[in-house]
Amino acid sequence: MTKTNRLAEPLSLAHGPAWKNRFMLAPLTNLQSHEDGRLSDDEFRWLTMRAEGGFGLTMTCAAHVQAGGQGFPGQLGIWDDRHLEGLTRLAAAIKTRGSVSSVQLHHAGIRSPKELVGEVVGASDDADTGARAMTTAEVEAARDAFIAAAKRAEKAGFDGVEVHGAHGYLLAQFLSAETNRRSDAYGGSLENRARLTFEIVDGIRAACGPDFQLGIRLSPERFGLKLAEVIDVASELLGKAKIDFLDMSLWDVNKEPAEEEFQGKSLMEYFTSLPRGQVRLGAAGKIMSGADAAAVIDAGCDFAVIGRAAILRHDFPNRVLADAAYRSPALPVTEQHLRDEGLGDAFLTYMRGWKGFVAEEAA
Fold first, then answer.
1. Can you give the residue range of the structural domain that contains 148?
2. 338: in domain
3. Fewer Cβ in 10 A, N or C end of the chain?
4. What separation in angstroms does the CA of 289 have from each of 23, 213, 249, 286, 335?
5. Mean pLDDT of 253-269
C-alpha cells in the first residue's frame, strides 16, 4: 500500500465518529468572528469550504471559554449561550459536507491583550504583560469554563472538542515552571502544574456523552516548556486513554529538539515512540505537500494536521488524494487567490502580517 493510500484510510477513534481520512484541519486563528464572539458569515464560509475540501476533521479556530480569556480581536466565542446559534449552524454545515466537526477550546491567560479583556490574568504575576496571578478559585472557575464550553459544543451538535494546551496560552502557562510560580495545588511539582489540564480533560469526559470526541493540542518547546515534562504529560494522557487524539504542534515536523541533550532524532519521534493504545496521534508543522503528509503517517503518526497549506487551498486533502505529488502553491500568493480560497477581509489583513505570504500589491 502506498503512503498516499494510507492518508485515504478512515481513522476510527475510541469515542465518536470515524474520520473519513487522515487529514485534520489545524485550528487556525483568523480574526473573522463578531466582537462579541458570535460566528460571522466569513468564518462560516472559511470553515465549511475546508469541510467540503475533504478534511476528515474540520477544527475551528481557538474559541475562548471565558470573556476574560480572549486572545485575539474577532475571536470565536464559546463562553455564552448567545454563541449557540452560530455554532449550531456551523456544526450542521460541517456534517452535511462529510467531515467530523470539532471546536478548539482556548484561554489566552497572560497572552490576552489588555485592550480586549481589561484585567489580564494567568498562572502567576507577569511583569511583561502586567498580568496578575489567578486565585485558586479563579483557576477552578477557568477549569469549569472549559468543561461548560465542551458541553455547549456538544449541545450545538459538534462531534467533539480539542483542548488548547499549547503555544504559551493558559494551560501551557500552568505547565511551565518558568511562568507558573504558584504555591497552591496548581503549582510546584509537574503533577501540580499539569493538574489543571488533567482536571479539564477528566471533567469534559465526565460531563459529555460517550460518543463525544476529545482531543488535546500540546507543543513541546518554547514559552518555558521543557521537552521531558511535555513527554511525561503526553505519556500519561496516552497511557490512561484520557483522550481520543493528541495533536502535537511542532512548528516543523522534521525539526530536532532545541534542547541539546535531546538532539539526534526528530521532536516527532519522541511522541510517536510513546505507547498510545487506542489514542490517535497527529502532528502539525510545515506539511505543504502530499509527500510531507505521507511522510508524517510513515513516521508513525495516525493523521496529519494541515495549517498553512489549508489556507492556500481549501481542498488540500482532495488534491493530495488525487495526486500524490501535489505541492502547495509557491509563496507569495495574491490577495485574489486567498479570497477565492474563502478568506474574508479580516483574515486577509491578518495574513498580510505573515512575512512573504501575501504578494505586495502593485502601486
1. 3-328
2. no
3. C
4. 12, 28, 17, 9, 21
5. 95
Domain of 27, CATH number, reads 3.20.20.70
Identify whether 311 is part of a domain: yes
Question: Does the reported pTM lie above 0.85?
Answer: yes
End-to-end CA distance of the chain: 51
Closest CA to 317 of 45, 6, 50, 102: 50
pLDDT tens by residue, 85-138: 999 999 999 999 999 999 999 999 999 999 999 999 999 999 999 999 999 999
On whether the CB atoms of residues 310 and 55 are closer than 8 A, the answer is yes
pLDDT band for position 278 (50/70/90)?
very high
- Give 112's Cβ-side CA count (13 Å radius): 28
Number of domains observed in the structure of the chain: 1
Q: Examine residue 337 and state whether it is found in any structural domain, yes or no.
A: no
Task: Give CA–CA dist 186/109, Å, rounded.
Answer: 15
Segment 137-152 shows an average pLDDT of: 98
User: Which residues, at least 6 apart from 341, have a Cβ–Cβ distance to it below 8 Å?
Assistant: 49, 311, 312, 313, 314
Q: What is the pLDDT of residue 242?
A: 87
